[in-house]
Structures are given as structure tokens and as C-alpha cells.
Amino acid sequence: MTRRFLSVGFLFLSSAALAGGFQNGPQSARLVGLGGAATAYARDASAIFYNPGILGHLDSLTHLSFGGLGTARTTSFLGADSRRQTVQDFTIQPGGYFYATHPVSDRFKVGLSINTPFGYDTRWPDQWEGSSLVRSASLRTVYVQPTAAFKVNENFSLGAGFIYAYGKLKRERGLGQYDDLGATARYEASGSGIGYSVGMYGRTGDDLSFGISYRGPVALKMDNGTAEYTNIPALDASRYPASSSFATRLKLPSGLAVGLADQMTKNLLVTFDFTLTGWSSYDSLNFRTEAGPHVRTGRRYEDAMSFRVGGEYTVSNDLLLRAGVSYDETPIRDEYISPELPDGNRLGGSLGASLRLNRLLLDLGYGLDVTGKRTARVNRTQYQSPNIAGTYRTLVHTLSAGVSYSFGSKN
Question: How do strand 360-376 and strand 304-316 relate by DSSP bridges?
Fold first, then answer.
């Protein structure tokens, strides 16, 4: 047993790697406590989002799981020239999840997931030194995924899901070329897109299981955007109209994950995940306005990997305890660091618990990610990626609470 654990651990550590960006925390209170190691975790209905193949191996009960999720980024910025420190306004990125699974037969099961996997909410003081780049920016997304899975045999199952995604984007910045500090540009748009998710789950014995899943990219088509310009001098009124429509596309990344789960002892389950997130599809963010200047912002994200380890200990039939560690690699290149989302490589730790009350299981999870220091420099040749020189430091807090409920009779 020990030799198997060490060999599995070495396999993942030698891969070492990782995916930050604007992904929200793990989409379940249980999985927050596990550090997000979910690809081979077959004890919760949230499996249908992270690996549809697990659905085929859930027991023959109807499972419901729902809850809330909050993510807070606290970022400080120290200007390279001004030596002035600015602290981002404290905000909480709200989210939530709902999962339902139902057995059609012993081998065929269906499910539905609704969650909020991507998003951010950045707010700086109105007149901070980078206000001409961004004062506030936010993205909110909702994924709806009906899923079906088939158990091929007692040790192997396959699953697939269709994704409908909706997103809303907001952005505000000051127009620093004018003396009036109230000169402001605001952009707001919403739209939808479609995608898919596939996965497989297998067991090599009673103790060891594995999972592989792939979630395809989703392009949100936003053609109903509105750009508003306020406090513009009369001389430039034609350049910056009071209101104008615009269109954009926002590309949300794909994800390829491999996971293992090892029942180390009767009471202890250990899970491992390795994920490659296809952030390179997020090359730029462009607003094509009907009137007024087009906005072209380079992003040039890179594909990034993540490594996660979680443990779940069964204290009793009514109490489960969890802990996890994770390392997420940022997809943001040094030359494209922006105050809109000053992300960095993240080292995280988490704790969680579940308490059974009759047929209800109350779930709670908390995670803290410490982001490495990022230093931004101004490159005058990158006119599509204006920036401000300085150093960012960020902490990411994630808190989730939920309820799980199962009913029916096992076959």
C-alpha cells in the first residue's frame, strides 16, 4: 500500500504543474475542502461537472446537491515610479451550484449541473494611478450541463454532457487624456455559447480508481454590448458619443484532467488531480463599436497546468473531514500583467467537513491561495496592451457551504 502511494505521488509531482486565470473555486463545498481534486472522486453529485464518466458509477439513488460559493481576491499594488501603495476595494465574487442525478437503470444514469466556473470582480479606487487602464472589471458566468453516463461493466463507465453557457461582462476606466477626472468609459455586454464535456471513470480494484475528462472550450457571443462615455469635452463629442453599441467574443478555456483516488485505509481516501487548461484560446479582448473608438486589448494567455491533492477522513457515519493542497500555474505572461486581473502562480491550502443530519449532509469548505509577487513593466511597443509599472501581491479566499440529499432505494 505504501509503495503504491509513493509511486502515485511521484508520478504527479514529477509532472508538477498547474491553472489560475479567472477560474472560480471548486464548484462544490466538498471539493473546496479537497483542494479541487475531483476527477476520480465518486462520492458526490458534483462529479457530473468535473468528470461525466463518474455518473455511471454513482449508486442507484437520486442525488441532489446545492450550495453557495464566494471568492474574494485581495490585491495590493506598489507603483514603480510613485512608490504609492494602492489596495483594491474588497469584493466578493458570488457563485453557486446545483447538481441532480437520477438512475434510469442500473447501467444508465442522467444528471444536471448548474454552476459558475469562471468569473472575476476587480475594483480599484476611482482615482488611483492606473484608473486610465481600469477602475472596475467583472465577469460572471453560468454553465448549464445536462449529462448522461453508461456503466460498461463493474469497473468502467463513460459519460458526456452538453454545455450551455451564459456570461455578463462589465468594464470601466477613466479617460486620462482629459483634465476632467470624471471623464469615463463604461462597457457592458452579455451573451451565450455552447460546449461539451466527456469523461471516463474506472477502477482497478476496490481501493484504487482513476478518471480522465475533457471539457471543450466555449466562445461567448456578445452582440448586444453598450458603450457609454461621460463628461467628454464638446470638442471630442463625436469621437466619444454618449452611447454606442458594440460586439465582442469571449473565449472560455478547455480543460483536460487526469485523476486518481486511493482508499488508503478503511477511513482515509486520498485523491490526486492533474489538469491542463487551454487558456491560449484567450488571445485578446476586442470591442468592435458601432460609433466611437474600437477597443483592442492583447491578452496572449498561455496554456497552464494545475496539481491538486486532497484527503477525506471518515470520523464516523455522521462526520467527514477534508483537507487539500494545490498549486496553480498562472496563464498570464509577464509582459501582459494587467490590473484588470493581476494573477500569479498560486499555492493553496483548504479544509472542509460534512455533518449528517438525518437524511441531509451539510457541507462546508474553505480555501486560501497565496499568489506569488508579480512585477509589471511598461513596454511602449505594445500599444494594444497599455500597462502601469509596479508590483502586485494577491490573496484569494474561497468559502462554500452546501447541502446534499439522497433518496430512493439501492438495487
Answer: unpaired
